[in-house]
Amino acid sequence: MHNSLVAALDIGGTKIAGALVDGNGAILHRAQRPTPAHDDGETVMRAVENVLAELAASPLWVRATALGIGSAGPVDASAGTVSPVNVPGWRGFPLVERVSHAIGRHLPITLVGDGVAMTAAEHWQGAARGYDNALCMVVSTGVGGGLVLGGKPHAGPTGNAGHIGHISVDLDGDLCPCGGRGCVERIASGPNIARRALENGWRPGPGGDTSAAAVAEAARAGDPVATASYERAAQALAAGIAATATLVEIEIAVVGGGVAGAGDVLFGPLRRALRDYATLSFVQRLTVAPAVTGTDAGLVGAAAAATLGQGEAAVPAGRG
After folding, report:
1. Rounded to two decimals, what is the model's pTM?
2. What is the per-residue DSSP string for 284-315?
3. Whole-angstrom Cα distance, residue 17 to residue 291?
4. Going from the N-terminus, what domains does the chain have, and what CATH number goes with each?
5. CA-to-CA distance for 184 and 199, rounded, in angstroms?
6. In angstroms, what CA-CA distances link 138 with 69, 135, 155, 164?
7. Which residues, 6 or more positions from 313, have their beta carbon under 8 angstroms from its beta carbon?
8. What is the pLDDT of residues 223-281, one digit of tens each?
9. Belongs to which family (predicted)?
10. Beta strands 134-139; 143-149: pairing state
11. How are strands ordered across the β-sheet holding 15-21?
12. 83 within 8 A of 48, measured Cβ to Cβ
C-alpha cells in the first residue's frame, strides 16, 4: 500500500523512542520516554507501553502495517526476547509478545539489535546507500555494529550479527565485561578512550570534563596523551574492520555514534591504521565514512528492518 506506514521502537539505556515512519524514511509522528533503566522489568515495560499508547493516539496509527523494534542487546530475534546489558531488569524479557499484547491489533513485529537497526538505516538512507556489502558501527559508550551482505541487512539467526565490539584485537589485552579479552569495545569506546587518557596522565580542563569529547578537544589542541588515546582506539577499530572485510568482503565501513563526533581526530588515524591492517588485494579499496542518519538512526532502521521482515520474531502461537 502506497500510503502505509511502519511503527518503530528504539529501546536504549537512556530513552525509549517510538515513531511512525513513511516509505521514504521520514518520521511523521514521534513519542519518547526516559528509560527507567534501574527499575524492575515491569516498570521499563510500562514506559514502552506509554510510548506505544502515544503512537496509537495519532490518527496516522491506522496506516501502520508493521512494527519494527531496535533494542540494545543482546537480543534474541528468534525467541522475541531481549536482555540489554544496561537494563538489568530485562533478562530474557519477552518483548515481542508484550508489545503484541500492548498494541491490541495484529501487526507483524520484527526485532533486531540496535547495531543492526543503525545499519539498516545507513543502508536505506545514509552513507552505506548503494553499497551491497557494508559494515556499519556505532562507537559510543559501547561499540556495536551490523552487516549488509548481498544488498540486504544481515541480522543473523538471533539478530546480533556484525557485533564488532566483541571481536578480540588484543590477545593479551584487558578483560572485557563480556568475559573476553582485548575486545574492540574495551579499547575504542568513549569511556575507555577517556579512561586510558587519564591513566596516562591527561588532565581535564578547569571544568573537570573527563568525557571522550573532552579528550578529543585536547587532541585537537595537540595534547600528545589525548592524541595517543584516540590513535589506540583507531587502531583497534581498524583491526576489527579489516578482520570483518577479510572475512566477508565489505566495501565500506560506516562509523557513527558519539565518538565518531571527534571527526578527524578519529578518522585520520583510523584511515592510516587501516592501510596497515587491510593489506590483501580484495580489501585494499575499503572506504571508511562517517554515519549520516544521526540520532534517528535507531527509529529509521527499526522501520527499515520491519519493512524487510529481517529476523522476524514470531509471537508464540496462541498468545498473540
Report:
1. 0.89
2. TT-EEEE--SGGGHHHHHHHHHHHHTTTB-PP
3. 20
4. 5-113+297-308 (3.30.420.40), 127-292 (3.30.420.40)
5. 19
6. 17, 10, 15, 10
7. 77, 78, 79, 80, 96, 109, 110, 111, 159
8. 999 999 999 999 999 999 999 999 999 999 999 999 999 999 999 999 999 999 999 99
9. Belongs to the ROK (NagC/XylR) family.
10. antiparallel
11. 27-34, 15-21, 5-11, 64-71, 109-113
12. no
| 8 Å CB contact between 237 and 139 | yes
Cell numbers at 178, concatenated: 563480556
Lookup result for grid cell 521499563: 44
List the Cα angle 107/116/90 in 5-degree steps: 70
Helix/strand/coil percent split, the chain, to 5:
40, 20, 35
| Grid coordinates given for 147 | 552487516
Torsion of CA 146, 151, 156, 159, to 10 degrees: 50
Query: Which DSSP letter does residue 142 get?
Result: S
